[in-house]
């Protein structure tokens, strides 16, 4: 039997040509689907950004900017509608006064499961007249952040009143072991039916660095930093005039380092800034900067 090599080669070439066309078609379809996904993602981002209207792009170099009370309220609204902002950066650029805005809705809610998982840098600015009343909300766990899964830092709560069953000025509860409160102080008055922490209530998996409470605390359990538990507390201040301990030793299971008795000057928090920065890097968060508070 004689093999017709010309026919074999012709058939093989034709088959190869069809394979190339099929592969090209697959690549074109794959590319198109990728572009559709990119377009959909862009549309989602554009719709979100058009709705909330923050300046910036959410990176460390170009964070979303919180310039006003309206921006802070929009930020709370975004988180409480399911935007966790995981690893997204926000920066407060000015002191914010909430005097004329009624009861503030905490950023993140324990009952809903929604929480902020990005980085909020207050830029050593303040929030004044922060008023939160749990009676206006469907939640007993209240604070500036009702539930925090990310980082809040370099921020002062200068004045206000917070009412609830379980109250922490910056966070009622943590949502992950990446939750951190760094270089913050509270001067609002806190009123709790059960527990009241000057910085947080139950922060059992989170960490608190370099914070102080200067506000009045009222509740069945009151403590200057946390009212129940926290994984790590370092460089925090307890006022020499306070009758409250930093933590409740019957429920606290974490570690405490380098805490001190202070006189009430916010600049006292600057004493351990290099240590906070080292600790933050140790916990694999490198793109944040702990800022010094002004002297005086």
Question: Top keywords for this entry?
Answer:
296 residues, alpha/beta, 6-stranded parallel beta sheet, 24% helix
Describe the protein in words.
The structure is a single chain. The chain has 296 residues and is of the alpha/beta class. It has two domains: 1-52; 57-282. The chain is built from three helices and 21 strands. It has helices spanning 5-52, 69-80, 273-282, and strands spanning 64-66, 89-92, 96-97, 119-128, 130-133, 141-142, 145-148, 151-157, 160-168, 171-174, 180-182, 185-186, 189-197, 200-209, 212-213, 217-218, 221-223, 226-234, 237-239, 255-257, 260-262. It is globular and about 105 Å long. It starts with a helix and ends in a 14-residue tail after the last helix. The model is unreliable at 35-48 (pLDDT under 50).
Percent of residues in helices: 10-25%
N→C terminal distance: 104 Å
Strand pairing plus helix content: what structural class? Answer: alpha/beta
Unreliably modeled segments: 35-48
Mean pLDDT: 85
Rg is: 26 Å
Major sheet size, sense and barrel closure: 13 strands, parallel
Write down how many β-strands occur, each being a DSSP E stretch of 2 or more residues. Answer: 21
> How many structural domains are formed by the residues?
2
Principal-axis shape equals globular
Total DSSP helices: 3
H/E element sequence? HEHEEEEEEEEEEEEEEEEEEEEH
């Amino acid at each position: 039997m004689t093999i017709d090599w010309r026919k074999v080669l012709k058939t093989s070439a034709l088959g190869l040509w069809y394979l190339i066309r099929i592969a090209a078609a697959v690549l074109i379809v794959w590319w198109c689907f990728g572009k559709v996904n990119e377009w959909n993602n862009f549309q989602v981002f554009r719709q979100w950004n058009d709705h909330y209207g923050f300046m910036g792009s959410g990176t460390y170099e170009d964070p979303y900017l919180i310039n006003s009370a309206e921006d802070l309220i929009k930020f709370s609204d975004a988180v409480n509608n399911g935007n966790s902002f995981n690893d997204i950066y926000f920066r407060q650029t000015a002191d914010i006064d909430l005097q004329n805005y009624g009861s503030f809705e905490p950023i993140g809610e324990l009952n809903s499961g929604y929480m902020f998982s990005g980085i909020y840098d207050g830029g050593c600015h303040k929030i004044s007249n922060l008023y939160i009343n749990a009676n206006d909300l469907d939640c007993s766990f209240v604070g500036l952040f009702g539930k925090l899964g990310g980082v809040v830092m370099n921020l002062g709560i200068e004045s206000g009143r917070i009412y609830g069953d379980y109250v922490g000025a910056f966070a009622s509860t943590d949502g992950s072991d990446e939750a951190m409160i760094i270089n913050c102080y509270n001067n609002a008055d806190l009123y709790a039916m059960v527990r009241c922490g000057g910085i947080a209530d139950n922060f059992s998996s989170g960490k608190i660095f370099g914070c102080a409470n200067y506000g009045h605390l009222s509740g069945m359990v009151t403590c200057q930093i946390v009212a129940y538990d926290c994984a790590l507390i370092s460089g925090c201040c307890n006022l020499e005039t306070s009758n409250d301990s930093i933590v409740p030793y019957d429920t606290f299971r974490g570690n405490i380092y380098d805490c001190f008795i202070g006189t009430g000057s916010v600049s006292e928090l600057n004493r351990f800034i290099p240590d906070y920065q080292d600790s933050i890097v140790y916990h694999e968060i490198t793109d944040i900067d702990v800022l010094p508070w002004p002297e005086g």
